[in-house]
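A quick word before the example. In earlier lectures we treated sequence and structure as two separate objects. From today on, think of them as two lines of the same record. Here is DMT family transporter written that way.
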Amino acid sequence: MPLLFVVIWSTGFIVAKFGLPYAPPLTFLLLRFVGVLLVLVPIVLLMRAPWPLGQIRHIAVAGVLLQAGYLAGVWCAIKLGMPAGVSALIVGMQPILTAFAAPLIGESVKPRQWLGLLFGICGVGLVVAAKISLIGLSWQSIALCVLGLLSITLGTLYQKRNCAHFDLRTGTIIQFSASIVVLLPFAIFYEHLGPTLDTVQWTPRFVGALLWSILALSIGAIFLLFALIRKSAATRVTSLLYLTPPTTALMAWMIFGEAFSLLGMIGMLVAVLGVAFVVKK
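And the structure line, produced from the sequence above:
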C-alpha cells in the first residue's frame, strides 16, 4: 500500500504539467473536486455508507487543509512560474515539520528516525538540485508554496489527532464539499470563473489530466493516504513523501524526456535509505 501510494501521489506534478496550460489552477481544482463528488455520491447512496455525524466538523477542517490549502497553494505557485523542483523541495520539508510537531499528537520520534528524516531531505535536494532555478522567482509563488506546505502538515496532524477513523467514502465527500465552498469564491474573484466555464479549454489532454486527477489522485491516492494515517504514526506516513520528487523526476524522464542525472539517481537512493530509517520498526 505505501508503494502504490507513492507511485500515484507522484503523478501530481505530471498532471499539473498536462492540465494547467488549459485551465486556471483554482478552476481546475474545483472541476476535480466536483468530479469526485459525482463519482462518490452515487456509490455512497447505493451502498448506504454510514455518515460520521459526530465528526463532520473535524473532517471538514482536515479536508480544507489537506485538499484546498495544499493543492491550491502548490498549483497556484506552479502557475506563477515556480519550478517543479523548487516546489518539490519546499513541500519536501513536511516530514521534518511533522516530526517536530509529533509530541502534539502523542507521538515520539526516535534518533534513528531523525537520521532518516535528514537523509530524506538531503536525497530530495540532490534529486531536484539540477532543476532548481531561482531566477525570476516571485515572493508570491514562494509564499503560496509555503502555504501549501503548512496546510498539508497541519491537515495531517489535525486528522490524526481529531478524526483518524471514519468511513472513507462519506468522509471524502465531506472533505471535498468543504474544499469547494472555500475555493469557489477565490476562483470567481481571481479567475473570473463563470457558469459557462469559458476559461477552460476542453482538449483531450486536459480531459485526460482531469479524469486522472479525479479517479487516481483525489480518490485512489487520498483513500490510501487516509488508510495510512489511520494505521501508522504521522511521521512514518509523511516520510513517504520524500519518495515523491525522485519518483516524479523518473516519470518526467520517461514521459517528457527531462534530464535525470547521476546526481539525481544518487539522491533517489539516499531518499529511499532515509525513508527506510523512518518506517522500519
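Notice the following. The chain has a mean pLDDT of 83. We will return to this example when we discuss secondary structure assignment.
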